[in-house]
Design goal:
Layout lengths: L1 H14 L15 E9 L1 E3 L5 E9 L8 E7 L5 E8 L5 H8 L6 E5 L3 E7 L13 E10 L8 E7 L11 E5 L5 E9 L1 E4 L21 H11 L7 H7 L9 H13 L7 H5 L1
Parallel strand pairs: 1-11, 2-12
Antiparallel strand pairs: 1-3, 3-8, 4-7, 4-9, 4-10, 5-8, 6-7, 9-12, 10-11
Length: about 270
């Protein structure tokens, strides 16, 4: 009976995550540890096409049986073309066998935000979201009118949008049929339009935050010491000397640019021209 009650509660919990129902209400006395949702900062190709992943981390030990949120975007700057689930827990196949509805993963483009829903009515937590890993990948195309070297945000927001009382919904149901709602933290992403064929967005900006700083020079030193790796765009931006390799000369140029100002020191392709 206890298992049947929990399964029924889980189905009710997950059915609340629907476009019609909107966000479910969080009970303050059942809040759990943080769940983190992170959108990638990506760079479009020469035709404006891009892909960006959204990842999960800091998941509760039990895992999540349901999550609902949206990726908000500027429709004047980009258009969405597709969504691909990257984290397959096996829940969909198991639900098909059990003849449960609705589908485990679904999405809808609402014109200014991409609504995302993941929810399973399965009692077995082995089918829940438990691993820290990429969740799904979105694809799209930047507007031709978007200037090179600029970016547009991918914001992780509640499914209902960034209204005063809206919250991102995520949680699970325990064996006694009690719903637990997790607090969430988010890291927004962005899509850059490159400035040249190398995929660079701003020479000297290794972390793709839209500015050059001492932290970028520190990153260069760490890369040279083989302590970490950069994204493809990060490496392109790091090539301040524009010679195809990353050396201490690139660090010196970046520091000189920070000291004297960007107009006083030629970086990247401008230096190579």
């Amino acid at each position: 009976m206890k298992a049947q009650k929990a399964a029924a509660a889980m189905l009710a919990f997950c059915s609340a995550f629907s476009p019609a129902a909107g966000l479910i209400t969080r009970a303050d006395d059942t809040e759990e540890a943080l769940t983190a949702i992170t959108a990638e900062t990506a760079v479009a190709d020469g035709n404006g096409a891009f892909t960006a992943t959204v990842s999960l981390s800091q998941l509760p030990e039990t895992g999540l049986c349901a999550a609902e949120f949206a990726v908000a975007y500027d429709a004047a700057a980009l258009s969405m073309t597709g969504v691909e689930l990257l984290y397959d827990t096996g829940a969909q196949n198991a639900e098909d066998f059990a003849k449960l509805e609705p589908p485990v993963f679904s999405y809808e483009d609402k014109g200014d935000r991409l609504w995302i829903r993941w929810g399973t009515g399965l009692m077995n937590a082995d089918y829940w979201l438990k691993e820290e890993r990429p969740f799904f990948r979105i694809s799209g195309t930047l507007s031709e009118n978007m200037p090179a070297g600029t970016r547009t945000e991918l914001r992780i927001v509640p499914a209902a949008g960034e209204t005063a009382k809206a919250e991102i919904a995520a949680g699970y149901v325990d064996a006694d049929g009690n719903a637990h709602y997790c607090k969430t933290s988010v890291t927004h992403g962005a899509v850059w339009k490159p400035i040249d064929e190398t995929g660079a967005t701003m020479y000297g900006d290794l972390d793709l935050d839209g500015k050059r700083s001492v932290s970028d020079a520190v990153l260069m030193h760490r890369v040279l010491a083989e302590e970490l790796a950069l994204s493809a765009a990060g490496y392109a931006n790091a090539d301040c000397e524009f010679d195809g390799v990353l050396t201490l000369a690139d660090v010196r140029l970046l520091l000189e640019s920070l000291l004297k100002g960007p107009d006083a020191v030629a970086l990247g392709a401008r230096k190579g021209s």
